[in-house]
Amino acid sequence: MSTIDQPAATGEVAPRQLGIGMRFSIHPHCDDFVDVILGALGDVERAGLTAGLDVVTDDVSTYVTARDAPAEQQLARYLAGVIAAASRRSGGGHVVAHAMFSRGCPGEVSCDLAVTGLPGATPVDLPATGVPAAAHWSLYPLLDSGSDHGDHLPIIEAAIARAKERGTVASTHYATRLSGDVADVLATAVDAWAEVGARVPHVVTHLTVSVGSPTTVPQP
Fold first, then answer.
1. CA–CA separation, 73 vs 62, rounded Å?
2. Are 121 and 198 in contact (CB under 8 A)?
3. What is the pTM of this model?
4. 197-212 pLDDT per residue, tens
5. Are 177 and 169 in contact (CB under 8 A)?
6. 122-169 pLDDT tens trace
7. Which helix (H) or strand (E) holds 88?
8. What sign does the CA torsion over 10, 161, 100, 127 have?
9. Are the C-beta atoms of 115 and 13 separated by less than 8 Å?
10. Could you tell me if 158 and 202 are in contact, meaning their C-beta atoms sit under 8 angstroms apart?
């Protein structure tokens, strides 16, 4: 049992009913950024990483939602694939991705937070990409005042404590810093988000992921 209580599997809500998805933007810092972005999105589609997902790209970002379990695995695998593909297509140049994962708000206009049978959290298993990354990560359990789930800070602290066991976590101002292979960075954030979501009806996590940055930072 983790530091965050897990619900029983019986009667769990399906991902398409609960609303488990993400929205992300990717920014290659190169002259041919259009080819890099569109090429990376095409690469992951040809690799079969869009199976089980609904993917819609507009002029701002790409929306991705999972129809069935394992939702977190599918989302993390897709985003890791896009970032790694963009890195390869830019020749290992600087690529930044902004991603927001949301769990528990399927209606987008109105949300039913009185959900029972929240899906449990199964750790994601991603193959290494060979692309080192750093990220700033934030986690937001969206709890109303007086919620039976209690104060949000112990939930965040427990999630970070679990994430530290992976060896990818360090402290920084107004965020938590993650570093390692793109797959490890995303797995750390997604697993913590899913574990909180197994207890809290609506939870959001945000990452800014950087690969190939010209700025080097001493590691703790």
1. 18
2. yes
3. 0.85
4. 888 888 999 999 999 9
5. yes
6. 899 999 999 999 999 999 998 755 445 456 778 788 878 877 887 788
7. helix 71-89
8. negative
9. yes
10. no
